[in-house]
Amino acid sequence: MLTPPFTVVLIVPTGIGAKIGGYAGDALPIARSIAQISDHLITHPNVLNGAQLYWSLPNMYYVEGYGLDQFAANRWGLRPVHQNRVGLILDQGIEPDLRLRHLQAAEAVKTTLGLNIGDYIVTDTPLGVQLQTAHSGASWGTIAHPDSLLRAAATLIETAKVSAIAVVARFPDDMATETLANYRQGKGVDALAGAEAIISHLIVREFQIPCAHAPALSPLPVDETVSPRAAAEELGYTFLPCVLVGLSRAPQLITSIDQSTDLQGKQVDAVVIPADACGGSSILNFSQSEAKIIAVEDNATTMTVSPESLGIKTIRVTSYLEALGVLVTLRGGINPDALRVSASSISRWGEGHETQH
């Protein structure tokens, strides 16, 4: 009898200051590790993007956050591809020299990595990105002209026949000095991440097409004290390469699911999430499925939404190393509780059915 594929979802919500995964691709080692013991690892750009650094594996699926929410709700399926034709949207608000740097980055990825980079388009109006911070400390933002973004995307899809879209929007350089300094020191929230998510969500929701974003910013002055977690963003003028690599093999988002070819949310075996960030749409939907939810305690965020507060049953672990051990047991059909010194006793039905710890 064939064993079904072991499918894991790794989520580190963006813009909430996660100790691991809240910086420049610093959750990539976790994704690479989980991919070694999974047939399918589904995760999102915040986990896999590392500015000019990236790591692509054939069983690792790059799925934008809104698409991941729809997948978790069993509304959309994921259809694996060999290669996407990636179109590029550039914000009209990007200065000519900075625009050229991003076009050169796209040309380099096309030539050096052999990716199928299609046409680019410049929005007909500056997008006007503004950054905001919530009371919780999480970052978010607004776009003054979302209609311009959608027109550009529609043109690329309809006339250039692209199957994925990378967006580069001009972001403000005048971030509060303290906010930027804290982030570069590995202590704060990524002030850009929340607004980036809004940009990609808009295109994915409207067109059901893979999308991710790279901000355009003026280069920062050299700082010898930058944290290793933020160092990937110090390497050059653009964060675009990792986005193009991720989108090149991002699964297509399918609304009419083919049971024989498309991955579905109901096929997910396990979900790994920071223990205090369990209020997102994906987790709420996965909690209604058969998937085991593994809550990692030492990846603290600015959120205070525990699984217990929402009535979500989880397997709590201290670290991602422990989470890897739990995933190995789940893949092997072994009850993780059997590996603990004090395994719980079998109880009569109706007694002692509480959240797993």
From TrEMBL:
Domain of life of the organism encoding this protein: Bacteria
InterPro entries: DUF3326
Matches recorded under PANTHER family: OS01G0127400 PROTEIN
Name used for this protein in its record: DUF3326 domain-containing protein
Organism for this UniProt entry: Dactylococcopsis salina (strain PCC 8305) (Myxobactron salinum)
Source lineage: Bacteria, Bacillati, Cyanobacteriota, Cyanophyceae, Nodosilineales
